[in-house]
Write a structure and sequence with these properties.
This protein has about 325 residues and is α/β, with parallel strands linked by helices. It is built from 11 helices and 13 strands. A 9-stranded mixed beta sheet has the order 6-5-4-3-2-1-10-11-12. A two-stranded antiparallel ribbon has the order 7-8. The protein has a two-stranded antiparallel sheet with strand order 9-13. Strand 2, helix 3 and strand 3 form a beta-alpha-beta unit.
Length: about 325
């Protein structure tokens, strides 16, 4: 998979879920879905740049976007995509039939246990996850590790085991009452997080080995940030040159907190060249991939498999579901 530039593409604000830990409030998530261009127009807009793109489609919930499968089919004729999704919308069936899996870098499937209990349960998620995996799409399941989710993590493992998937604990970055996370995870919660992260790495190891590169949204190393999030300000970064952030209306920024670089739909996007000092602070996951500081940290990551006293974390006390296998 060879591409010139990657985009974190915030395709839409609207979502069919309203998770309490989402970065966006209900007034944003429940806003009316707005389309700024037809699939063919988006295709032409990216094609005319002359670059090959890896388009990470997120939101909101991308799969509820009008003509979602048609949009992905148009884009993957020349470019590559990746996807954040809660796997609930019926458009994913057409997606599985019309999209070449070799044009998809990864699918981050968000397993939102508590929100699903307020909806129609887990059946649709499991059916779509199994379908996509069976068609050869590289899929990783993530579970935002709120304190409640960490308490129920064995339940999530048991839920996914029949379809050969495993939940990856995703660092919770937010607040509950007076507690701010990840700073206020207890030591016991950190230990559970680290242990489940290691199990997830073991499970997805063979899949990662088959992929051309690690997923850009690399939750598998989130345990490296349990003690705090780094600040990348001033670090040399390729944002604006090899990575950009795109808004629903096509406006392009060097990153989520960076300067405007034009609009992809109006053909005014200007790609920067080379490295520049970061003038933001922390773009989740993409800093780890495109900043020199993040690249250095990844190269030296010990995988956090040991406890504070240097001994391996024990899985005995976690009461994993009977017959659990790490594939």
């Amino acid at each position: 998979m060879k591409y010139d530039i990657e985009a974190d593409w915030h395709l839409l604000d609207t979502c069919n879920y309203s998770c309490s830990y989402c970065f966006f409030g209900p007034e944003v998530l429940k806003s009316k879905l707005r389309k700024y261009a037809a699939p063919s127009d988006w295709q032409s807009a990216f094609d005319v740049t002359g670059n090959i793109w890896l388009l990470h489609m997120t939101g909101g919930e991308p799969s509820i976007y009008s003509d979602f499968a048609e949009l992905c089919e148009a884009l993957t004729a020349r470019h590559y995509i990746s996807l954040n999704s809660n796997l609930t919308h019926r458009s994913l069936v057409a997606f599985s039939q019309r999209i070449d899996p070799s044009r998809v870098s990864f699918i981050n499937a968000g397993l939102h246990l508590e929100e699903r209990e307020n909806r129609a349960g887990n059946e649709t998620f499991l059916r779509h996850a199994e379908l996509l995996r069976g068609e050869g799409f590289p899929i990783v399941v993530s579970l935002v590790a709120t304190p409640t989710a960490l308490d129920r993590f064995e339940e999530a493992i048991a839920l996914l085991q029949p379809i050969g998937l495993f939940p990856v604990p995703k660092l919770f970055r937010g607040s509950i009452g007076q507690r701010a996370y990840p700073k206020d995870y207890s030591e016991a919660q950190k230990n559970r997080f680290r242990a489940f992260s290691q199990l997830a790495r073991d499970h997805y190891g063979s899949q990662l080995a088959r992929m051309s590169e690690r997923p850009s949204i690399d939750m598998l190393n989130d345990d490296a940030f349990l003690e705090g999030l780094p600040t990348y300000t001033g670090s040399l970064c390729e944002a604006g040159a090899r990575f950009v952030h795109i808004k629903p209306n096509g406006d392009v920024f060097s990153c989520a907190g960076g300067p405007w670089q034009g609009n992809i739909l109006s053909d005014t996007f200007v790609r920067q060249s080379g490295l520049a000092p970061c003038n933001s602070s922390h773009c989740y996951y993409f800093c780890n991939k495109y900043s020199r500081l993040g690249q250095s940290m990844s190269a030296n990551d010990p995988k956090r498999t040991l406890g504070n006293d240097g001994t391996p974390y024990s899985m005995v006390s976690m009461s994993l579901p009977s017959g659990t296998k790490v594939l």
